[in-house]
Amino acid sequence: MDIDAAINALKKKIGKSTYSMEGSRDFSDGTCDCSGAVYYGLRKAGCSDFGYIPSTETLHEYLVQNGITLKAENEPFNMEKGDIIIWGKQGQSAGANGHTGICIDNQNWIECTAWHDLGETIQNHDKRWVMAGKPFFYVYHYTGRTPGINPNVTYGLHVKGGDWLSPVVNFNPVNSDGYAGLPNHEHDMLYARVDHGALKYRVHTIEAGWLDWVTSGNPNDPVNGCAGMFGQTIDGVQMVYLTPSGEYYRNAYYRSQTTKRADWLPEVADDSDFAGIFGEPLDRLQAAVNIRDPFGEQ
């Protein structure tokens, strides 16, 4: 990847572009937005065709597909030319809630912004970050490494007043092996674990609200290896995947059904929300760890 080609291509758009999330997003009509500009520059640098222009949400995936590795996550870092910074916590950065640009040296970045109607512009990154309220951020830098294989998540539910059901690995949309839980039944215990990295999870019960986070998954250890309380009905679940340092950032994606309504509820990424509806017993759960939302691929 030639980062100078990306920066030079974007410099040519300074003074010749207007910020818009509703236009072409690729400068073809004279408008662009922040993630569209970064994508435009990276395509000029030799990066792959994503199939569509990414948002600040999906830009993470595009970067890692092209060997652009997570360098820092909301922590002090040494800025250098070629750093790609994304503002806004993944899962919560859609639309105007996120922003991104490419660093051209150790202080400044090139960005497409609605601020002062500038469009494509070079600004001091840290001043702009403070101006924006110091949002959560990610820093990526090209290393040439590929993403590797997503971890497997194994999980299972215990039927209230009954037994543990067979464990499930990841999910599929085809049959009963693709989810944990027994349809139209209540559940009171959950365990989950991953084969790489770490997973923390917790459940909400109708009787007691949110219970403590759990970091191991073992159905034979109801105290430390499971989330829940025997006899209490689970109506909510949260999961968070803890990506090992230096690896490509991944989320736990999960979704559920309840005994009160048909079809799956919207999927959740990490702790951006929770799976379930308070007051409605959870009867099915699906989960996976991935760079991108696997449920959106169905």
UniProtKB/TrEMBL annotation:
Q: Which keywords does UniProt give here?
A: Hydrolase, Protease, Thiol protease
rRNA-binding: is it a keyword of this entry? no
What protein is this chain from? Cell wall-associated hydrolase
**Protein family:** Belongs to the peptidase C40 family.
The terms under GO molecular function for this entry are: cysteine-type peptidase activity
A Gene Ontology biological process in which this protein takes part is: proteolysis
Q: Which domain of life is it from?
A: Bacteria
Question: What Gene3D superfamilies does UniProt report for this protein, alphabetically?
Answer: endopeptidase domain like (from Nostoc punctiforme) (3.90.1720.10)
